[in-house]
Amino acid sequence: MHRDALGPVLLADERHGPLPALLLALTVVTGLVDAVSILSLGRVFVANMTGNVVFLGFALAGAPGFSLGASLSALAGFLVGAGVGGRVGRRLRWHRGRLLLTGASGELLCVAIGLAIVASAPRHLGSAVQDGTAAVVAVALGIQNAVVRVLAVPDLTTTVLTLTLTGLAADVRQGFTPASLRRLLAVATMFAGAATGAALVLNIGPAAALSAATGVLALVVAAVWALVRVDRAWFAPPN
């Protein structure tokens, strides 16, 4: 694949329009918020429920450093968010632009609430603040997961990289294809979000990382709002 094909893959995809680029931005958000949840909210995932269920098992077994309350709060919040996102997806599945705008707006609201909770709390976050923040941010990521599922852009789940890495390794003999490029970019953006989030949490505080996530989401919402004002082919479902 030539370098000049990067733009079309991300910004002018025949079936998905700018959705790949927008979903990569949401992948950055995942890295940012999971950095906050792991490092500041009692070792809990708010985006990756596979890891969170494992951490829940650790907490129930009494392993030190894992919060049962935060894990349960995150799991419950995620399920609520996924339920809301699923309902939005059923109503707006025929217009993917409005679907993403609605989902990203809801996600932005939830992450902003999480930011407000953390910013107004003492420097040392108590268990109630940890559990409440984990729950509300997990709602945001539940919405994101449900909406991304309906958008159905291949290789861009925005939260889980297991199948992405499997595809990269399994299809390596096919060479550098648009699919492999998307997979590589998904891994890179998740890594970038996590590394940036960790640096912000460790050097400034969790509110800084949540501020960054809020900023990225605001940019996504603004971009989609501008795009949906003109009818576009990629609004329709891919199948």
Note down, in words, how this protein is organized.
This protein has 239 residues and is mostly helical. It has a single domain (3-235), classed as Growth Hormone, Chain: A (Up-down Bundle), CATH 1.20.1250. Helices cover 72% and strands 0% of the residues. The chain is built from nine helices and no strands. It has helices spanning 6-11, 19-40, 49-60, 68-92, 96-120, 127-151, 162-170, 178-203, 206-227. Helix 2 (19-40) packs antiparallel against helix 6 (127-151), helix 2 (19-40) runs antiparallel to helix 9 and helix 3 runs antiparallel to helix 4 (68-92). The longest helix is centred in the last third of the chain and has 26 residues, at 178-203. It is globular, with a radius of gyration of 18 Å. The two termini are 26 Å apart. 46% of the residues are buried. The model has no long low-confidence stretch (mean pLDDT 89).
